[in-house]
Amino acid sequence: MSSRGDRTDPRVARTRDDVPRAAYRILVDEGADAVTHTRVAEAAGYAKATLYTHWPTRTDLLHAALSLMTEVDHASVSGDPRADLIGQMSGFRSMMEDRGTHRALGAMAELSAAGSPELAELRDRVAAEGERVMRGVLADVTDGPELEAAALMLNGAVLYAAMLHGGPPDDDTIATIVDVVLRGLRASRDG
Amino acid sequence: MSSRGDRTDPRVARTRDDVPRAAYRILVDEGADAVTHTRVAEAAGYAKATLYTHWPTRTDLLHAALSLMTEVDHASVSGDPRADLIGQMSGFRSMMEDRGTHRALGAMAELSAAGSPELAELRDRVAAEGERVMRGVLADVTDGPELEAAALMLNGAVLYAAMLHGGPPDDDTIATIVDVVLRGLRASRDG
Asked: Where the record puts its DNA-binding region(s) (chains A, B) (predicted)?
Protein backbone atom coordinates (compact mmCIF):
# COMPACT_ATOMS: atom_id res chain seq x y z
CA MET A 1 0.00 0.00 0.00
CA SER A 2 1.51 3.32 -1.03
CA SER A 3 2.28 6.21 1.33
CA ARG A 4 0.01 8.43 -0.77
CA GLY A 5 -2.92 6.71 0.92
CA ASP A 6 -3.74 4.52 -2.06
CA ARG A 7 -6.31 2.19 -0.59
CA THR A 8 -6.15 -0.51 -3.26
CA ASP A 9 -5.98 -3.88 -1.55
CA PRO A 10 -2.53 -5.33 -2.37
CA ARG A 11 -4.16 -8.66 -3.29
CA VAL A 12 -6.35 -6.84 -5.80
CA ALA A 13 -3.30 -5.02 -7.16
CA ARG A 14 -1.52 -8.36 -7.60
CA THR A 15 -4.53 -9.83 -9.37
CA ARG A 16 -4.66 -6.79 -11.69
CA ASP A 17 -1.04 -7.48 -12.59
CA ASP A 18 -0.96 -11.31 -12.77
CA VAL A 19 -4.12 -11.88 -14.79
CA PRO A 20 -3.31 -9.61 -17.77
CA ARG A 21 0.18 -11.16 -17.93
CA ALA A 22 -1.25 -14.67 -18.01
CA ALA A 23 -3.82 -13.61 -20.63
CA TYR A 24 -1.08 -11.99 -22.75
CA ARG A 25 1.06 -15.14 -22.65
CA ILE A 26 -1.89 -17.31 -23.71
CA LEU A 27 -2.76 -14.85 -26.50
CA VAL A 28 0.71 -14.90 -28.08
CA ASP A 29 1.41 -18.60 -27.43
CA GLU A 30 -1.97 -20.09 -28.33
CA GLY A 31 -4.00 -17.38 -30.08
CA ALA A 32 -6.95 -15.19 -29.06
CA ASP A 33 -9.40 -18.13 -29.17
CA ALA A 34 -7.60 -19.61 -26.14
CA VAL A 35 -8.09 -16.46 -24.03
CA THR A 36 -11.10 -17.56 -21.97
CA HIS A 37 -11.88 -16.98 -18.28
CA THR A 38 -11.38 -20.71 -17.57
CA ARG A 39 -7.99 -20.92 -19.29
CA VAL A 40 -6.62 -17.63 -17.90
CA ALA A 41 -7.84 -18.34 -14.33
CA GLU A 42 -6.08 -21.70 -14.47
CA ALA A 43 -2.83 -20.24 -15.84
CA ALA A 44 -2.78 -17.29 -13.41
CA GLY A 45 -3.81 -19.39 -10.41
CA TYR A 46 -6.96 -17.43 -9.52
CA ALA A 47 -10.58 -18.43 -9.11
CA LYS A 48 -12.72 -17.93 -12.21
CA ALA A 49 -15.13 -15.83 -10.11
CA THR A 50 -12.29 -13.39 -9.30
CA LEU A 51 -11.62 -12.92 -13.00
CA TYR A 52 -15.30 -12.28 -13.77
CA THR A 53 -15.36 -9.59 -11.06
CA HIS A 54 -12.59 -7.53 -12.68
CA TRP A 55 -12.94 -8.57 -16.35
CA PRO A 56 -16.60 -9.48 -16.97
CA THR A 57 -16.17 -10.34 -20.68
CA ARG A 58 -13.59 -12.03 -22.93
CA THR A 59 -13.13 -8.65 -24.62
CA ASP A 60 -12.14 -7.19 -21.22
CA LEU A 61 -9.54 -9.94 -20.77
CA LEU A 62 -8.16 -9.40 -24.28
CA HIS A 63 -7.93 -5.62 -23.81
CA ALA A 64 -6.17 -6.08 -20.46
CA ALA A 65 -3.64 -8.36 -22.17
CA LEU A 66 -3.09 -6.00 -25.11
CA SER A 67 -2.57 -3.06 -22.73
CA LEU A 68 0.74 -4.64 -21.70
CA MET A 69 2.11 -3.56 -25.10
CA THR A 70 2.37 -0.01 -23.71
CA GLU A 71 5.22 -1.30 -21.49
CA VAL A 72 8.30 -0.80 -23.67
CA ASP A 73 11.94 -1.19 -22.58
CA HIS A 74 13.63 1.41 -24.77
CA ALA A 75 17.33 1.02 -25.54
CA SER A 76 19.38 3.91 -24.17
CA VAL A 77 20.41 6.71 -26.53
CA SER A 78 24.07 7.56 -27.25
CA GLY A 79 23.76 10.64 -29.47
CA ASP A 80 24.94 8.81 -32.62
CA PRO A 81 21.83 8.60 -34.83
CA ARG A 82 22.96 5.48 -36.70
CA ALA A 83 23.70 3.51 -33.53
CA ASP A 84 20.57 4.83 -31.83
CA LEU A 85 18.21 3.95 -34.69
CA ILE A 86 19.75 0.47 -34.88
CA GLY A 87 19.24 0.22 -31.10
CA GLN A 88 15.58 1.20 -31.32
CA MET A 89 14.90 -1.23 -34.17
CA SER A 90 16.71 -4.01 -32.32
CA GLY A 91 14.58 -3.25 -29.26
CA PHE A 92 11.40 -3.60 -31.33
CA ARG A 93 12.78 -6.89 -32.69
CA SER A 94 13.44 -8.15 -29.13
CA MET A 95 9.83 -7.41 -28.18
CA MET A 96 8.75 -9.68 -31.03
CA GLU A 97 11.22 -12.44 -30.22
CA ASP A 98 10.74 -12.37 -26.44
CA ARG A 99 7.10 -11.39 -26.10
CA GLY A 100 5.56 -12.23 -29.48
CA THR A 101 4.60 -8.56 -29.90
CA HIS A 102 3.86 -9.03 -33.63
CA ARG A 103 1.19 -11.60 -32.72
CA ALA A 104 -0.31 -9.29 -30.09
CA LEU A 105 -0.31 -6.42 -32.63
CA GLY A 106 -1.91 -8.80 -35.11
CA ALA A 107 -4.64 -9.66 -32.62
CA MET A 108 -5.20 -5.94 -31.95
CA ALA A 109 -5.57 -5.26 -35.70
CA GLU A 110 -7.93 -8.20 -36.14
CA LEU A 111 -10.04 -7.25 -33.10
CA SER A 112 -10.28 -3.68 -34.43
CA ALA A 113 -12.72 -5.12 -37.00
CA ALA A 114 -15.37 -4.53 -34.34
CA GLY A 115 -14.23 -0.88 -34.23
CA SER A 116 -14.29 -0.28 -30.46
CA PRO A 117 -13.17 3.23 -29.36
CA GLU A 118 -11.27 1.68 -26.41
CA LEU A 119 -9.18 -0.37 -28.81
CA ALA A 120 -8.41 2.68 -30.99
CA GLU A 121 -7.32 4.58 -27.88
CA LEU A 122 -5.12 1.66 -26.81
CA ARG A 123 -3.60 1.42 -30.30
CA ASP A 124 -2.68 5.12 -30.17
CA ARG A 125 -0.99 4.67 -26.78
CA VAL A 126 0.95 1.61 -28.00
CA ALA A 127 2.18 3.53 -31.08
CA ALA A 128 3.05 6.70 -29.11
CA GLU A 129 5.04 4.84 -26.46
CA GLY A 130 6.67 2.49 -28.97
CA GLU A 131 7.87 5.35 -31.21
CA ARG A 132 8.70 7.92 -28.52
CA VAL A 133 12.47 7.44 -28.27
CA MET A 134 12.96 6.79 -32.00
CA ARG A 135 11.15 10.04 -32.85
CA GLY A 136 13.55 11.90 -30.53
CA VAL A 137 16.53 10.38 -32.35
CA LEU A 138 15.07 11.19 -35.78
CA ALA A 139 14.39 14.81 -34.71
CA ASP A 140 18.17 15.39 -34.66
CA VAL A 141 18.37 14.36 -38.33
CA THR A 142 15.14 15.53 -39.95
CA ASP A 143 11.67 16.90 -39.29
CA GLY A 144 8.15 17.22 -40.71
CA PRO A 145 6.94 14.76 -43.33
CA GLU A 146 10.34 13.07 -43.67
CA LEU A 147 10.41 12.31 -39.95
CA GLU A 148 6.94 10.73 -40.24
CA ALA A 149 8.06 8.76 -43.30
CA ALA A 150 11.21 7.51 -41.53
CA ALA A 151 9.29 6.45 -38.37
CA LEU A 152 6.83 4.43 -40.51
CA MET A 153 9.60 2.79 -42.56
CA LEU A 154 11.91 1.84 -39.68
CA ASN A 155 9.20 0.42 -37.44
CA GLY A 156 7.29 -0.97 -40.40
CA ALA A 157 10.26 -2.95 -41.72
CA VAL A 158 10.56 -4.79 -38.39
CA LEU A 159 6.84 -5.50 -38.09
CA TYR A 160 6.43 -6.54 -41.74
CA ALA A 161 9.36 -8.99 -41.62
CA ALA A 162 8.06 -10.53 -38.37
CA MET A 163 4.55 -10.89 -39.79
CA LEU A 164 5.29 -11.90 -43.39
CA HIS A 165 8.86 -13.23 -43.57
CA GLY A 166 8.72 -15.57 -40.59
CA GLY A 167 10.79 -13.39 -38.25
CA PRO A 168 12.06 -9.84 -37.69
CA PRO A 169 15.15 -8.64 -39.66
CA ASP A 170 18.65 -9.75 -38.61
CA ASP A 171 21.42 -7.32 -37.55
CA ASP A 172 22.80 -6.83 -41.06
CA THR A 173 19.37 -6.11 -42.51
CA ILE A 174 18.59 -3.60 -39.74
CA ALA A 175 21.91 -1.82 -40.36
CA THR A 176 21.24 -1.71 -44.13
CA ILE A 177 17.76 -0.27 -43.53
CA VAL A 178 19.12 2.45 -41.21
CA ASP A 179 21.90 3.31 -43.69
CA VAL A 180 19.49 3.65 -46.63
CA VAL A 181 17.14 5.86 -44.59
CA LEU A 182 19.90 8.08 -43.15
CA ARG A 183 21.49 8.55 -46.59
CA GLY A 184 18.08 9.35 -48.05
CA LEU A 185 17.29 11.89 -45.31
CA ARG A 186 20.72 13.54 -45.54
CA ALA A 187 20.68 13.67 -49.34
CA SER A 188 17.43 15.60 -48.98
CA ARG A 189 18.84 17.97 -46.36
CA ASP A 190 21.97 18.61 -48.45
CA GLY A 191 20.14 18.69 -51.78
CA MET B 1 -16.42 -26.62 -66.78
CA SER B 2 -13.09 -26.06 -68.52
CA SER B 3 -12.14 -27.46 -71.93
CA ARG B 4 -9.21 -29.23 -70.24
CA GLY B 5 -11.71 -31.82 -69.04
CA ASP B 6 -11.78 -30.55 -65.44
CA ARG B 7 -14.44 -32.72 -63.87
CA THR B 8 -15.14 -30.62 -60.79
CA ASP B 9 -18.87 -30.22 -60.38
CA PRO B 10 -19.59 -26.54 -61.14
CA ARG B 11 -21.75 -26.33 -57.99
CA VAL B 12 -18.81 -27.55 -55.91
CA ALA B 13 -16.52 -25.05 -57.64
CA ARG B 14 -18.98 -22.25 -56.81
CA THR B 15 -19.14 -23.38 -53.18
CA ARG B 16 -15.33 -23.43 -53.01
CA ASP B 17 -15.34 -19.85 -54.22
CA ASP B 18 -18.33 -18.38 -52.35
CA VAL B 19 -17.64 -19.78 -48.90
CA PRO B 20 -14.05 -18.51 -48.47
CA ARG B 21 -15.20 -15.08 -49.68
CA ALA B 22 -18.00 -14.97 -47.12
CA ALA B 23 -15.62 -16.18 -44.39
CA TYR B 24 -13.05 -13.52 -45.37
CA ARG B 25 -15.66 -10.75 -45.20
CA ILE B 26 -16.80 -11.88 -41.75
CA LEU B 27 -13.19 -12.13 -40.58
CA VAL B 28 -12.28 -8.56 -41.55
CA ASP B 29 -15.66 -7.01 -40.64
CA GLU B 30 -16.35 -8.80 -37.35
CA GLY B 31 -13.14 -10.56 -36.31
CA ALA B 32 -11.97 -14.19 -36.27
CA ASP B 33 -14.31 -15.10 -33.38
CA ALA B 34 -17.27 -14.56 -35.72
CA VAL B 35 -15.97 -17.03 -38.32
CA THR B 36 -18.10 -20.06 -37.40
CA HIS B 37 -19.77 -22.66 -39.64
CA THR B 38 -23.20 -21.31 -38.64
CA ARG B 39 -22.36 -17.67 -39.39
CA VAL B 40 -20.49 -18.35 -42.67
CA ALA B 41 -23.18 -20.77 -43.96
CA GLU B 42 -25.82 -18.12 -43.32
CA ALA B 43 -23.79 -15.34 -45.00
CA ALA B 44 -22.82 -17.46 -48.03
CA GLY B 45 -26.30 -18.99 -48.42
CA TYR B 46 -25.27 -22.64 -48.08
CA ALA B 47 -26.33 -25.43 -45.74
CA LYS B 48 -24.10 -25.87 -42.72
CA ALA B 49 -23.64 -29.56 -43.69
CA THR B 50 -22.13 -28.47 -47.02
CA LEU B 51 -19.57 -26.35 -45.18
CA TYR B 52 -18.64 -29.19 -42.84
CA THR B 53 -18.04 -31.45 -45.87
CA HIS B 54 -15.42 -29.15 -47.39
CA TRP B 55 -14.10 -27.35 -44.26
CA PRO B 56 -14.49 -29.70 -41.28
CA THR B 57 -12.99 -27.30 -38.69
CA ARG B 58 -13.05 -23.56 -37.91
CA THR B 59 -9.31 -23.55 -38.68
CA ASP B 60 -10.10 -24.87 -42.17
CA LEU B 61 -12.59 -22.04 -42.69
CA LEU B 62 -10.09 -19.43 -41.45
CA HIS B 63 -7.31 -20.78 -43.68
CA ALA B 64 -9.62 -20.78 -46.69
CA ALA B 65 -10.46 -17.13 -45.97
CA LEU B 66 -6.82 -16.10 -45.48
CA SER B 67 -5.83 -17.85 -48.74
CA LEU B 68 -7.71 -15.10 -50.61
CA MET B 69 -4.83 -12.76 -49.71
CA THR B 70 -2.78 -14.44 -52.45
CA GLU B 71 -5.11 -12.74 -54.96
CA VAL B 72 -3.40 -9.40 -55.57
CA ASP B 73 -4.33 -6.82 -58.24
CA HIS B 74 -0.94 -5.34 -59.02
CA ALA B 75 -0.78 -1.85 -60.51
CA SER B 76 0.76 -1.84 -63.98
CA VAL B 77 4.41 -0.85 -64.36
CA SER B 78 5.54 2.13 -66.46
CA GLY B 79 9.33 1.85 -66.25
CA ASP B 80 9.71 4.95 -64.02
CA PRO B 81 10.82 3.55 -60.63
CA ARG B 82 9.39 6.43 -58.59
CA ALA B 83 5.94 6.22 -60.19
CA ASP B 84 5.99 2.42 -60.10
CA LEU B 85 6.95 2.16 -56.41
CA ILE B 86 4.26 4.71 -55.55
CA GLY B 87 1.83 2.60 -57.62
CA GLN B 88 2.74 -0.60 -55.78
CA MET B 89 2.44 1.03 -52.35
CA SER B 90 -0.89 2.60 -53.33
CA GLY B 91 -2.08 -0.83 -54.44
CA PHE B 92 -1.18 -2.31 -51.05
CA ARG B 93 -3.04 0.60 -49.42
CA SER B 94 -6.13 -0.10 -51.54
CA MET B 95 -6.12 -3.72 -50.39
CA MET B 96 -6.29 -2.47 -46.81
CA GLU B 97 -8.97 0.11 -47.50
CA ASP B 98 -11.14 -2.08 -49.75
CA ARG B 99 -10.57 -5.54 -48.27
CA GLY B 100 -9.27 -4.89 -44.73
CA THR B 101 -6.06 -6.75 -45.64
CA HIS B 102 -4.25 -5.43 -42.53
CA ARG B 103 -6.88 -7.11 -40.35
CA ALA B 104 -6.56 -10.38 -42.28
CA LEU B 105 -2.74 -10.17 -41.98
CA GLY B 106 -3.20 -9.47 -38.27
CA ALA B 107 -5.40 -12.55 -37.90
CA MET B 108 -2.78 -14.61 -39.78
CA ALA B 109 -0.01 -13.39 -37.41
CA GLU B 110 -2.15 -14.07 -34.34
CA LEU B 111 -3.17 -17.55 -35.57
CA SER B 112 0.51 -18.33 -36.24
CA ALA B 113 0.83 -18.61 -32.43
CA ALA B 114 -0.28 -22.21 -32.93
CA GLY B 115 2.63 -22.61 -35.38
CA SER B 116 0.92 -24.66 -38.10
CA PRO B 117 3.10 -25.50 -41.13
CA GLU B 118 0.12 -24.82 -43.45
CA LEU B 119 -0.12 -21.27 -42.13
CA ALA B 120 3.63 -20.66 -42.59
CA GLU B 121 3.36 -21.91 -46.17
CA LEU B 122 0.37 -19.63 -46.80
CA ARG B 123 2.23 -16.66 -45.28
CA ASP B 124 5.15 -17.26 -47.65
CA ARG B 125 2.80 -17.35 -50.65
CA VAL B 126 1.05 -14.14 -49.55
CA ALA B 127 4.42 -12.37 -49.15
CA ALA B 128 5.84 -13.67 -52.45
CA GLU B 129 2.78 -12.68 -54.50
CA GLY B 130 2.37 -9.35 -52.69
CA GLU B 131 6.00 -8.31 -53.29
CA ARG B 132 6.49 -9.83 -56.75
CA VAL B 133 5.99 -6.74 -58.89
CA MET B 134 7.66 -4.34 -56.43
CA ARG B 135 10.78 -6.52 -56.35
CA GLY B 136 10.95 -6.33 -60.14
CA VAL B 137 10.79 -2.53 -60.00
CA LEU B 138 13.46 -2.37 -57.27
CA ALA B 139 15.75 -4.68 -59.28
CA ASP B 140 16.19 -1.85 -61.82
CA VAL B 141 17.53 0.40 -59.03
CA THR B 142 19.43 -1.85 -56.63
CA ASP B 143 20.12 -5.47 -55.67
CA GLY B 144 21.18 -7.76 -52.83
CA PRO B 145 20.72 -6.63 -49.21
CA GLU B 146 19.57 -3.13 -50.20
CA LEU B 147 16.77 -4.57 -52.33
CA GLU B 148 15.64 -6.69 -49.35
CA ALA B 149 15.85 -3.65 -47.07
CA ALA B 150 13.82 -1.51 -49.49
CA ALA B 151 11.10 -4.17 -49.93
CA LEU B 152 10.70 -4.45 -46.14
CA MET B 153 10.59 -0.66 -45.65
CA LEU B 154 8.15 0.16 -48.44
CA ASN B 155 5.66 -2.59 -47.64
CA GLY B 156 6.26 -2.24 -43.91
CA ALA B 157 5.44 1.46 -43.86
CA VAL B 158 2.01 0.77 -45.36
CA LEU B 159 1.24 -2.14 -43.02
CA TYR B 160 2.53 -0.37 -39.90
CA ALA B 161 0.50 2.80 -40.53
CA ALA B 162 -2.65 0.74 -41.16
CA MET B 163 -2.15 -1.31 -38.00
CA LEU B 164 -0.83 1.34 -35.61
CA HIS B 165 -1.78 4.78 -36.96
CA GLY B 166 -5.43 4.07 -37.71
CA GLY B 167 -5.03 3.88 -41.50
CA PRO B 168 -2.48 3.41 -44.29
CA PRO B 169 -0.34 6.41 -45.39
CA ASP B 170 -1.83 9.14 -47.61
CA ASP B 171 -0.49 10.04 -51.08
CA ASP B 172 1.98 12.65 -49.82
CA THR B 173 3.42 10.30 -47.20
CA ILE B 174 3.81 7.48 -49.75
CA ALA B 175 5.63 9.85 -52.13
CA THR B 176 7.93 11.06 -49.31
CA ILE B 177 8.73 7.45 -48.35
CA VAL B 178 9.57 6.51 -51.95
CA ASP B 179 11.74 9.63 -52.36
CA VAL B 180 13.74 8.96 -49.17
CA VAL B 181 14.31 5.32 -50.17
CA LEU B 182 15.27 6.09 -53.79
CA ARG B 183 17.69 8.85 -52.68
CA GLY B 184 19.17 6.48 -50.09
CA LEU B 185 19.61 3.69 -52.65
CA ARG B 186 21.09 6.00 -55.29
CA ALA B 187 23.45 7.70 -52.82
CA SER B 188 24.78 4.21 -52.09
CA ARG B 189 25.17 3.32 -55.76
CA ASP B 190 26.90 6.64 -56.55
CA GLY B 191 28.96 6.70 -53.33
From this structure: 36-55
- Sorted by where each begins, the domain ranges of chain B are 10-67, 73-190
Task: Provide, as residue numbers in chain B, all residues whose Cβ is less than 8 Å from the Cβ of A126.
Answer: 164
B31 in contact with A at a CB cutoff of 8 Å? yes
Out of A56-65, A180-189, B161-170, which region has the weakest mean confidence (pLDDT)? A180-189
Does B133 score more than 90 pLDDT?
yes
What region does B78 belong to: left with phi over 0, alpha with psi -120 to 50, or beta? alpha
* Predicted confidence (pLDDT) per residue in B90-107, tens digit: 999 999 999 999 999 999
Neighbours of B59 (CB within 10 A): 17
- Which is it for the CA torsion B100, B101, B102, B105, positive or negative? positive
With an 8 Å Cβ cutoff, are B181 and A153 in contact? Answer: yes
Tell the CATH superfamily of the A73-190 domain.
Answer: Tetracycline Repressor, domain 2 (1.10.357.10)
